[in-house]
């Protein structure tokens, strides 16, 4: 029991330790402006990671979310720029772009899920392929450069990222709502129970009259929708998209899920743990940047090391339980 409690509380202890370390290394770490920056940075990856928690808990995987985000941002910008001459720079035009991003996310999620559940192709192979497709498409649409939102629209759209209630911006609020709903779904809904049952043993789940294919497809749809929502909130930050948008987002999302205690092989999902994992990753980046300890270009390497260590700890825990 003690081992289990330590494993469960580990991410929270690590988060508290990082907060203390950050405050000791740089007094600016706890400044409201920096906290807002860390939370806003966490919001995009966090919403995607909540969806990834359901996919991984059901025994799946999605490597395409970063490329998907870049593609959705690109088509949303193109849609808004296309209707601008007809509707003008107003919220109607922006709402069309938002609808394109959300609908595109659902379609992309369905594509991944259908290939996994109906064509019965391994999730790793499917999403590795669609990762390349989405990244190539946005690069082609931008002709190797950058897709930029028209200046008037960009100015009108900016408050969606920079505005909010006090110092709590809209991306932070959206992340909090998604996290709360995700935790409720995983813990208290039939869908969440089915997701965990499928991840534990899909054959037993089928014998229990659970529609395994449908539930797995729904996890990919949920993830696609949350990628679309993240894009809706991300586009006003820079007002542009390119082939480099969303690079390594899939690595960060998967790392957050694993750090939070969700089993990589499925069967046990912790949305609250994923939220803690996202905050841990964002704080590590922030502390390294504030303290100037290592180059920011090494952040991806650090995240890779964290993933490997988290998987090793999961394996040791599972071995100990089997003994």
Tell me about this structure:
- A hairpin with a 2-residue loop joins β2 and β3 (168-169).
- This protein has a domain at 37-247.
- The chain has a two-stranded antiparallel ribbon. A two-stranded antiparallel ribbon has the order 2-3.
- The mean pLDDT is 89.
- The protein has helices at 2-25, 32-57, 65-87, 91-117, 123-141, 151-157, 159-162, 170-188, 190-200, 202-207, 212-238, 249-259, 271-291, 299-322, and strands at 146-148, 164-165, 168-169, 240-242.
- It is mainly α.
- The radius of gyration is 20 Å and the shape is globular.
- It has 14 helices and 4 strands.
- The longest helix has 27 residues, at 91-117.
Give the SSE layout.
Layout: H1 2-25, H2 32-57, H3 65-87, H4 91-117, H5 123-141, E1 146-148, H6 151-157, H7 159-162, E2 164-165, E3 168-169, H8 170-188, H9 190-200, H10 202-207, H11 212-238, E4 240-242, H12 249-259, H13 271-291, H14 299-322
Antiparallel strand pairs: 1-4, 2-3
Task: Tell me, rounded to a whole number, the average pLDDT.
Answer: 89
Uncertain runs are none
Strand order of the largest sheet: 1-4
Name the shape in a single word.
globular
Class by alpha and beta content = mainly alpha
Order of helices and strands: HHHHHEHHEEHHHHEHHH
Record field, number of beta strands: 4
Tell me the radius of gyration. Answer: 20 Å
- How much strand? under 5%
As a percent range, the share of helical residues equals over 70%
Oligomer state equals single chain
Structure annotation, total helices: 14
Give the termini separation. Answer: 14 Å
Biggest sheet statistics: 2 strands, antiparallel
């Amino acid at each position: 029991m003690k081992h289990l409690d330590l494993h469960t509380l580990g991410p929270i202890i690590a988060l508290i330790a990082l907060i203390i370390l950050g405050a000791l290394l740089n007094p600016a770490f706890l400044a409201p402006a920096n906290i807002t920056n860390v939370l806003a940075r966490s919001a995009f990856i966090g919403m995607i990671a909540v969806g990834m928690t359901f996919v991984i808990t059901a025994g799946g995987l999605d490597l395409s979310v970063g490329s998907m985000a870049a593609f959705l941002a690109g088509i949303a910008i193109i849609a808004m720029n296309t209707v601008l001459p007809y509707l003008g720079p107003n919220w109607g035009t922006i709402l069309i772009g938002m609808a394109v991003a959300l609908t595109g996310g659902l379609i992309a999620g369905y594509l991944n899920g259908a290939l996994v559940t109906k064509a019965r192709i391994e999730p790793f192979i499917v999403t590795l392929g669609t990762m390349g497709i989405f990244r190539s498409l946005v690069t082609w649409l931008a002709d190797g450069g950058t897709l930029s939102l028209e200046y008037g629209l960009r100015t009108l759209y900016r408050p969606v990222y920079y505005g909010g209630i006090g110092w709590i911006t809209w991306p932070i609020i959206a992340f909090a709502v998604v996290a709360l709903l995700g935790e409720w779904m995983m813990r208290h809904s039939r869908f969440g129970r089915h997701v965990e049952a499928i991840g534990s043993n899909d054959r037993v789940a089928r014998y229990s009259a659970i529609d395994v294919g449908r539930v797995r497809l729904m996890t990919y749809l949920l993830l696609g929708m949350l990628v679309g929502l993240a894009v809706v909130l991300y586009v006003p930050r820079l007002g542009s998209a390119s082939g480099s948008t969303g690079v390594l987002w899939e690595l960060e999302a998967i790392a957050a899920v694993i750090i939070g205690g969700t089993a990589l092989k499925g069967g046990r999902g912790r949305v609250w743990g994923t939220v803690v994992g996202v905050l841990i990753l964002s704080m590590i980046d922030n502390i390294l940047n504030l303290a100037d300890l290592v180059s920011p270009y090494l952040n991806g390497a650090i995240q890779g090391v964290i993933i490997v260590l988290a998987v090793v700890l999961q394996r040791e825990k599972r071995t100990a339980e089997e003994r």
